[in-house]
Write a structure and sequence with these properties.
The chain has one domain. The protein is 85% helix and 0% strand. It has eight helices and no strands. It has helices at 2-112, 118-133, 143-159, 163-170, 174-193, 201-204, 207-217, 221-224. Helix 1 crosses helix 3 (143-159) and helix 1 (2-112) packs antiparallel against helix 5 (174-193).
Length: 225
């Protein structure tokens, strides 16, 4: 009976050990059958992760490029508006200079056409009066009223211009339009030829990226119009 009990306990123990080790043993034996499949599944999972990372990278790159493009258009627009504003101010200064010069020339013609030299004499007397006073107040100067009248007659024409006439008078001419267009084209070409800002040195040294950079540096204006 003692040995019967011993063998009974021993058999139960071995059976329990066999049951406990069955999963590990079965797994070790089955590795040779499913290892190749497991490697393929792992590769497929890694590939899916790569595709996700690649997709996110492309989304981030395109988003940044869209923002850069919007910024570029904004900067070009502001630059053109500033140029046009500068040309219009220049045209206004040129017009005022022209009006002043015309008034001065008309005044000079009246002074030179004075047959009795009354204007010269009055101007001389006004100068002597200024010397006596120690300052020139031009109250008796005969030339100043003539100049003021000529300026007023020309300025009054400008004041009575309609908004359309004023716009045509001060608007930029064809040469100025060409200058604005050339400046804008230069900014556009510079933007299109710019190499994308990429931090990865390995990507920068890739053959396809180097080919793309070579294309950008040799691109001509006909291809980017």
């Amino acid at each position: 009976p003692k040995f019967t009990i011993f063998y009974d306990v021993f058999s139960k123990y071995e059976t329990m050990q066999l049951a406990n080790q069955w999963n590990d043993t079965a797994e070790e034996l089955s590795v040779q059958f499913y290892q190749s499949t497991k490697n393929q599944i792992d590769y497929f999972n890694i590939h899916n992760e790569y595709r996700f990372v690649k997709k996110r990278s492309m989304v981030n790159f395109m988003t940044n490029e869209r923002l850069n493009l919007e910024k570029h258009f904004h900067e070009r627009t502001v630059s053109m508006l500033n140029q046009i504003q500068g040309f219009e101010q220049q045209n206004m200064k040129n017009k005022l200079k022209s009006v002043t010069q015309e008034a001065f020339d008309a005044t000079l013609r009246k002074v030179e056409s004075d047959p009795d030299d009354e204007i010269y004499n009055q101007s001389f007397e006004a100068a002597l009066d200024g010397i006596r006073k120690g300052r020139m107040d031009f109250k008796t100067d005969p030339v100043l009223p003539i100049m003021t009248e000529e300026l007023s007659s020309r300025v009054s024409v400008l004041k009575n211009l309609s908004p359309e006439q004023e716009s045509r008078l001060l608007s930029i001419n064809e040469d100025q339009k060409k200058a604005v267009a050339q400046s804008d084209n230069a900014q556009r070409d510079s933007y299109l030829r710019a190499v994308p800002q990429i931090s990865s040195q390995g990507l920068k040294n890739h053959a396809k990226f180097l080919k793309f950079v070579h294309y950008l540096t040799n691109i001509n204006r006909r291809e980017i119009k």
